[in-house]
Every structure is written in structure tokens, then in C-alpha cells.
Amino acid sequence: MVDRDARPATYLALGRNLLRTGSRLRDAVGRRTQREFGITALQGDMLLLLAGRQSMICAELAAACGVNASTVTHAVDAAIGRGLMRRDRNVGDRRLVDIAITPEGVAVAARMETLLAEVAADAVHGMSPAEITRFAAGVARVGRNLAAP
Considering only CA atoms, which of 120, 117, 118, 104 is closest in space to residue 47? Predict the structure, then answer.
């Protein structure tokens, strides 16, 4: 466990950089997804999730994307209008509705993978392969630490 009192200014700077970097990454992805696919970064993220799982309920999508359920509902409505997602009755619990990806959504999700990889490559430009590997491991650890209860 890190002594959080040892260097509060360092952790403050790190926290600010993490917030700014996350915001800049979402903005960069959002600009590209809007320009290339006519969808938001959130819709692209949901398509990537659904491509791996086929369907999820809104609460699962919201938790996975880090937004509230009403935000997901609006994004899903727009994606349904574009033919990228659909609503299906949940077979395990008829009270629930699954959000499923359509064949058109699968095609966009595949292109989203490329787009996301390109944005990430631009973000780490100038870093060596070893630095990128260490950085990726560090970011993954930060994500796990933040997800822990």
C-alpha cells in the first residue's frame, strides 16, 4: 500500500493528469466516431461491448461504460434508429429487455476496433515498445484498482 501522505502534490498532479487524459481520449475517440460513423464515443463503446457479448441489459451497459442508465437509454435509442442495436425481450426474465447488436452494429464495431487502436497509437507516439508495454500494464492496474470495492 502506498503512503498517500508521502507526496500529496504528486498524487494531486497524477489525479489531474488522469482526469484530463481520460477526457482527451474520449474527445479524440468521439470526434473520430462522429466523423467516420455518425455515432458518439459512448455508442462506439457500447457496440464494442455488445460485439463481445451479443446482448446486455441497460444496467449492465451503464455500469460497463461508467454512465447512468438514462444516458445509456438515450444512446441506445439513437443507435436503434441507426440500425446498430435492437431491443429484445430477455429470455431468462421476461421483465427485462436486452440490448442486442445488429449485423450492421457488428460491422461498425469491427471498424471501431481499428479506430480505437489508431487513437491509442497516436496517444503513445514517441514511446518505445517497452514503455508502451509498461504503460499499458500500469493503466490496466489503475483500472482494476478503481473498480475494486
Answer: 104
Quick count: other Cβ atoms within 10 Å of Cβ 95? 6
At 88, is the secondary structure helix, strand, or coil? strand
Q: Which of 5, 86, 13, 8 is nearest to 46 (CA)?
A: 86
Other C-beta atoms lying within 10 Å of the C-beta of residue 31: 12
Mean pLDDT by 10 residues, the chain (149 residues): 69 92 92 94 94 89 91 95 94 89 96 94 96 95 85
Taking CB atoms within 8 Å and a gap of at least 24, the contacts of 98-101 are 98/55, 98/56, 98/57, 99/46, 99/50, 99/55, 99/56, 99/57, 99/58, 99/61, 100/50, 100/54, 100/55, 101/47, 101/50, 101/51, 101/54, 101/55
Pairing state between β 55-57 and 85-89: unpaired
Torsion angle of C-alpha atoms 39, 45, 49, 54, degrees rounded to 10: -10
- Does residue 101 sit in helix, strand or coil? strand
Write down the pLDDT at residue 72.
94
Who contacts 88 (Cβ-Cβ below 8 Å, separation ≥6)? 55, 97, 98, 100
